[in-house]
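Forwarding these from the shared drive since the link keeps breaking.
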Amino acid sequence: ANIKNSKILFVSKHPSRWHEQFFLKFQNHFSIFSLFLIEEAKKNGFRHLYKIINSIAKKEDAEFIFLDSEFFFSFGFEQTSKITKNIPLISLSFDDITFHEINSIQNFSVDFILSADPVGVLKYKEKNIPSSYMALENNTKKFGLQKWNLKRTSVLFFGHLTKGSRFEKINQIRSSGIKVNVHNPAEYRDWE
C-alpha cells in the first residue's frame, strides 16, 4: 500500500519540541493535523477523550493515528483501547527511558510503536509489542551540525545528560579514547 500523502491525526497531551521534530520528519510525505488532549480536557473533561479522537479521525478521514505515548496520567490503556480499530494506531515514544513500564501498559493496545529510544525498542520487542527505532534529531539546519567536523567524531550524542546515568556513560566512553560530541536539544528551544 502506498502511504505517501496519507492523512495522520497526531494526538499528544500538549505541544513540545519533539513534536516539531516529528512534523519536520513527516510533513513532506503526509498531511498532519493535531489534537492536544490537555486543551480538549479543559473544555470537555478527561473521561471521553477517546470519543473526541474517534470523532476527529472520522471527520478528517485519518488513515493513521499517531499517539504520543509519553506518560499522561488521565489517558492510559482503558482510553487507548477504545480508539477505533478501523485506523492503524501508532504509538510515538520520544524518550522512553524514564516511563517505559508505564508507557508499556498503554502500548499493549496499539498496532505499532515508533520510538526515539533504541533501548526502549528492544524492551518493547521483549514484550512482543511490534516496534522500530526512529531518530528524530536529523535536521542539520536545526541542530547546526555543519559547524562540526563529523569525520573526527566517533559518537554524536543528542540529549540531556542529566537523565539516568547518561553523564557517567558518556565519560566512560570518552575515557576509553573515543571522541564524543554531546548536543543538548534544550539549546534549541526557540525554533526558527
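-- next protein --
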Amino acid sequence: VQHSEFTKTIQVLDLTNLMTATYGTGSFKEEAKQLAKNPSSIEPCLIIVRANFFGTRNVVKQPPSEAQVAEWNVHFFPPGTSCITFPADSPHASHPLTMKPLAQSSRGQKFVQDSVTYKWVMDSKLHSGKFTLYKYIGPGEEGKLEVAKYWKRDGFKGTGGTLVLDSTEVDEVVGIMACLTVLKRNRRENRR
C-alpha cells in the first residue's frame, strides 16, 4: 500500500486469491496494480508498525489476530546490516535473519536461513525498482533458483510495488520482510 517515510503503519496486501491473470504476462502486472489501488477492500496479510521515530525498529503483526510475528531492526545508514527476529515458537524462522549488502556499493542484499543463502539481486543497473530473490541450493551459479521477484514501474520513486514469491521455496513473511529491507536500504541510499 502507498505510504511515506513518515507513515507509522505499513500494510502489505496479499492479492493471490484475487488475481486472474497469469504470472509473467503484462496483464498480470496491470491487474496487480489496479487491485492495489483500492486497498480498503483487501485484508492486509502483514502490518508493519514503526516502533520509534526514525523507523529503525518495527513490529510486524499478522491480521486478523494482530499477533506479533517478527521484529524488524533496520540500520539507519545504508551500508549497515539489518536484522529480522522471530518469536521462539515462530513457524517462519527458527533464528534471527541478518540482512547484509552483497558488496559495499551493491544495492543487493543477502541473508542465510537454515544454512541456505538467499540473495536479492537488482535486475538492471538502470531499473533499480526491479530485483529478484535467488535461493542458492548448490555450489556457485549452478545451484541458483529464482524464488521471488519484485517490480515497481517508476523505480524507487514513491512506494508500493508488486512482489511475487514461491512459498514452497521461501516463507512468505521472510520473503516480504527481506524485500522491505532492500527497499528501505535503497530508498535511504538514493537520498544521500
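The radius of gyration is 16 Å. DSSP finds two helices and eleven strands in the chain.

- D.
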